[in-house]
Amino acid sequence: MTQAPVTHAPSDSPHVLVLPPLLYGVALAAGLLLQWTAPRPIVASNARSWAGGVLLACGVWLAIWGRRVMDRAGTNVNPALPATALVVTGPFRFSRNPLYVALTLVYVGLALLTNALWLLLLIVPVLLVLHFGVVRREERYLEAKFGDAYRAYRSRVRRYL
Question: Residue 34, class by beta-carbon neighbours within 10 Å (0-12 exposed, 13-18 middle, 19+ buried)?
């Protein structure tokens, strides 16, 4: 006799509106298309390239660190899947959302490196969708799932920076 696969209740998810990498990827593609059709540079300074490179490198490093910590904790990185542990170590000691901070750093770094003003302008709607359509939903979910442990964590660690 075979055992049925273990499934999670449909409610065991924050029901985010969009997966964050997809959100940033669509904005990046749209911004680059706009930049190609109607070029708008940010600034013509070499400092822009250096700053962009530093932001990009920091974002990639933070994303790798955050993902490794989540993997070690045995929880899902994908916000559409159930959280199996409350991660409060590594970069999660400083930010409740270091992976989203990392995505933003990478995105802004790419905007600076490509000198694409459209990308910088599109970060505003991206951050609004991320905050209200992803982060706030995750916070409600984590509070319902982990209760006092999450509330204590939330009280001592900032949401973003």
Answer: middle
Query: How many Å separate Cα 12 from the centre of its chain?
Result: 20
Whole-Å CA distances, 45 to 20, 32, 41, 49, 111: 31, 20, 10, 8, 14
pLDDT beyond 70 at 125: yes
116: closest CA among 51, 40, 48?
Answer: 40
**CB-based contacts of 159, cutoff 8 Å, min separation 6:** 95, 96, 97, 135
Q: What is the pTM of this model?
A: 0.91
Over residues 38-66, the mean pLDDT reads 95
CA–CA separation, 91 and 102 (whole Å): 10
124: left (phi over 0), alpha (psi -120 to 50) or beta: alpha
* Measured distance CA(50)–CA(31) in Å, rounded: 21
Residue 46: what pLDDT?
86
Exposed, middle or buried, 80 (CB in 10 Å: 0-12/13-18/19+)? Answer: exposed
Q: Which residues contact 43 (CB under 8 A, 6 or more apart)?
A: 115
